[in-house]
Amino acid sequence: MNVEILKDDLKRWGEVIITTGSETFEIHSGDNVQFDTENNLIRLSAPDAEYIICGNHIGFVKKHFGHKVQ
Prior knowledge:
Blueprint: H1 3-13, E1 15-19, E2 24-28, E3 32-36, E4 41-45, E5 50-54, E6 60-63
Antiparallel strand pairs: 1-2, 1-6, 3-4, 4-5
């Protein structure tokens, strides 16, 4: 997956949920996230850890607008 496309989708949708082989990450437009388009990497800083996600290992992407919790 080309992370430049994900960067544009995050701007448009406000949230993307990406799944690699074994992990799922929910990324919001306000999160501390950097897209390294040269190396096809996503760098995500979360309260518990920092993640480096390789765009080549993203198998599934879900895009949706925020929603009201029932």
